[in-house]
Specification:
The protein is an all-alpha fold. It has 20 helices and no strands.
């Protein structure tokens, strides 16, 4: 471990909070940006060189794949939090147990998800109400991408380990490699060979494989600050710990993504242009929410290490600092989506009708960018404290009790359109924020009682 990495890890537990938190969050932001580009390039290149049905196939197919991927990323958060606590408590042997448990768990998960996604791709496409013109391409896209689940699982698992030990720069390097390869292959397969949505899928899988190969070589040259021995694989208890912390996050992320798929299915019933429009809108969301998402991940590791070092007050201060920084960017994203939705839509589509549909949807959903900077930071804080069951509960409540019912209701109103349906998004964001504020106040009261008892 370099001197710079040792400084970053130690600075989590002592000294100023803002500087090390920002220092840790910046590579996460860049990684999320590259991951967004990774998927966005697929849509943009297909939008430039292929017909609208191919755009719909990539937009819908990538959402289906995202619903599978979030199961992996949710469990990975469990690894990050547990490793963060082990590092904060200076227990390297426990860290080795966690990584060994992760390897066994993720290997089985990758095999199962690959088979499941390939087998049920047609059913997933049917459930999404994909326009008839785009059905065959959507099925092919999902099946090809599903063949790369082993690489998706490996990449996320390795990145989660590095974030847990306080290193966010190495995952950025891994995704940078993947993004470069993906862009080159997208232009080759789609732009030159005219492979449409299938070309974008093949580019994605190959790029992920290259990234995983590079990350394994990187670890061999730059060993982790703890060892993973044969004895670590013989202990099973950390698999249960990973599932206990990570499963609620994985389930919440999966079901919330399912709620977005339901909303996409509702909008798909309005026709091909609306289908492409909401696909572009959802792809833009990944770009526009990068800052709060990065601080959510950063806080998960930062808070976990401080909880492990028995410094809860420092963990709470980091939450408020992250919220202030994140909110500044949220205001900017709100103004951009509210006033320049058409410009944003033109980045991913040439069809004027699709651009107009995107702008209409963004005009209504833009208000969520004023709330997610606060909500996502709360969620990172709760993750770091291992209160992942609440994280799951609030996400499911807002999605299935607010966002989905309102989207369906608004879609059934006379003369409905993209703007009216999009209003369900900021309304559900308000529900998320209120639940998080309420739970934070409950935790503070509980902490105050515990402090009185220990005096």
């Amino acid at each position: 471990m370099s001197k710079q990495e040792r400084y970053q890890e130690n600075s989590f537990l002592s000294g100023p909070i803002a500087a090390p938190l920002i220092y840790f969050a910046l590579p996460l932001m860049l990684s999320l940006l590259l991951q967004a580009l990774y998927g966005g390039v697929d849509l943009a290149v297909v939008g430039r060189f292929s017909p609208t049905e191919s755009v719909s196939a990539v937009a819908t197919g990538s959402q289906v794949m995202q619903s599978a991927t979030v199961i992996v990323t949710g469990l990975t958060m469990g690894v990050t939090v547990l490793l963060g606590k082990a590092m904060g408590a200076q227990k390297p042997e426990e860290a080795g147990d966690i990584v060994a448990g992760q390897i066994k768990l993720f290997a089985l998960l990758a095999i199962f998800m690959t088979a499941f996604m390939i087998l049920f791709a047609p059913q997933a496409t049917k459930l999404m109400n994909v326009p008839a013109e785009a059905v065959d391409e959507t099925v092919r896209y999902i099946r090809i991408c599903s063949g790369g689940m082993i690489f998706i699982t490996a990449y996320n698992g390795i990145s989660g380990i590095f974030r847990g030990i306080g290193n966010s720069r190495s995952p950025f390097l891994f995704v940078l490699i993947a993004c470069i390869v993906n862009i080159i292959l997208d232009l080759l397969f789609v732009g030159v060979f005219d492979m449409k949505a299938s070309g974008a899928a093949f580019a994605t899988v190959i790029a992920q494989a290259v990234s995983v190969a590079f990350s394994i070589a990187f670890i061999r040259k730059n060993p982790l600050p703890f060892t993973v021995e044969k004895e670590n694989f013989q202990r099973e208890h950390k698999i249960k710990s990973i599932l206990k912390v990570g499963s609620p996050i994985a389930l919440q992320d999966f079901l919330v993504n399912i709620s977005f798929l339901i909303i996409t299915s509702i909008v798909n019933s309005l026709g091909l242009v609306a289908s492409a429009g909401i696909g572009v809108s959802e792809k833009l969301y990944v770009f526009l929410s990068i800052v709060p998402m990065a601080f959510m991940s950063a806080l998960s590791a930062f808070v976990a290490q401080n909880i492990g070092a028995e410094q809860p007050e420092r963990a709470t201060r980091s939450l408020f600092i992250a919220q202030r920084i994140s909110l500044l960017f949220g205001v900017g994203m709100f103004l951009l989506t509210f006033f320049q939705g058409g410009l944003l839509g033109s980045l991913f589509a040439d069809d004027p009708a699709v651009i107009a549909a995107t702008a209409e949807y963004l005009h209504g959903s833009s208000f969520e960018y004023l709330m997610i900077p606060l909500t996502f930071c709360f969620l990172g804080y709760f993750n770091g404290r291992e209160h992942t069951t609440f994280v799951m509960a609030q996400g499911l409540a807002a999605a299935f009790l607010v966002r989905v019912p309102l989207s369906y209701l608004f879609s059934r109103l006379p003369n409905t359109g993209m703007f009216l349906i999009s209003l369900a998004v900021p309304i559900s964001a308000v529900a998320n924020l209120l639940l998080c504020v309420g739970y934070f106040l409950i935790l503070k009261r509980q902490d105050a009682r515990k402090e009185k008892l220990t005096r």
